[in-house]
Design a protein that fits this description.
Elements lengths: L4 E5 L6 H13 L8 E5 L5 H8 L4 E5 L16 H6 L4 E4 L2 H9 L4 H17 L3 E6 L3 H5 L3 H16 L8 E4 L13 H16 L3 H6 L1 E5 L7 H5 L6 E4 L6 H10 L2
Parallel strand pairs: 1-2, 1-8, 2-3, 3-4, 4-5, 5-6, 6-7, 7-8
Helix pairs in contact: 1-2, 1-11, 5-7, 7-8
The structure holds phosphoenolpyruvate (PEP).
The site of phosphoenolpyruvate has 13 residues, from strand 8.
């Protein structure tokens, strides 16, 4: 039986004062979802604030990205060692907002997938669980390429790191057309894609396929979380906008109980 995980990606939002309100509000309700893994992903500058607030609670924390390099002359980047220093349990990798930014620099998609695999390797080398985000764009969705896109990233990761490495990771299916649009995938669509992902991994190792957590992300709110989380291959959610609102986020966490 896989445990459910609810991950709140704050993106580039918040100040020390608004973070405090949000953290206090969530912690007031934390007992009502202590059977669920819950993690928060603040902007890196607020990592210390979040670490101090969550230390000793049932919630974990992480960052929204990390460098694929260990250390050195990489201005503006954050290393896996630094994340470990701040007690991070997780790190988001390959979020579509990051992928789009890199695509603007004309990086070839295959090169981008390899960089994501390098970041993955770096995170697990420091004992940090990568949450690897994958999903198709609206155009790819319309062309019926969902499985091709997702299959390719899974294959690259497995080829590079070996299938067993996936047991140290979390996967998140995040269709780009559903992120921040208010238009969530239906539970049935998401279930179909999650099941495809498990089948693809099972070709290499059925045990890893059965145990890896696969989250759904894309416009999850308090009022649609329960039917998504009740699907057999959906193990929780990666939550953007709704993670900034105490009531919404708490009700999503409670839907995972
Ligand atoms: C996200 O940023 O990963 C996300 C799923 O955002 P939202 O919940 O706002 O769609």
């Amino acid at each position: 039986m896989r445990k459910l995980l609810v991950a709140g990606n704050w993106k580039m939002n918040g100040t020390s004062a608004t973070n405090k309100k949000l953290l206090d509000g969530i912690l007031t309700h934390a007992d009502s979802f202590n059977s669920v893994d819950v993690a928060l992903f603040p902007p890196a500058v607020y990592l210390q604030q979040v670490q101090q607030a969550l230390k000793g609670t049932n919630l974990s924390w992480g960052t929204q990205n990390l460098s694929q390099f260990r250390q050195g002359a990489y201005t503006g980047e954050i290393s896996a060692v630094m994340l470990k220093d701040f007690g991070c349990r997780y790190v988001l990798i390959g979020h579509s907002e990051r992928r789009c930014l890199y695509a603007e620099l004309d990086l070839d998609q295959l090169v981008l997938d390899h960089i994501i695999a390098e970041k993955y390797e770096m995170a697990i080398s420091e004992g940090i669980t990568p949450i690897v985000c994958i999903g198709e764009s609206p155009e790819e969705h319309a062309r019926g390429e969902t499985e091709e896109i997702i299959g390719r990233l899974l294959d690259i990761t497995i080829e590079r790191l070996g299938v067993k490495a996936l047991s140290q990771a979390v996967l998140a299916y995040e269709p780009v057309w559903a992120i921040g649009t208010g238009k969530s995938a239906t539970p049935e669509w998401a279930q179909e894609v999650h099941s495809f992902m498990r089948e693809r991994i099972a070709k290499h190792d059925p045990t890893t396929a059965e145990t890896v957590q696969i989250l759904y992300g894309g416009s999850v709110k308090g009022n649609n979380a329960a039917p998504l989380f009740s699907m057999p291959d959906i193990d929780g959610g990666l939550i953007g906008g709704a993670s900034l609102d105490v009531d919404e986020f708490v009700s999503i966490c409670q839907a995972a109980v």
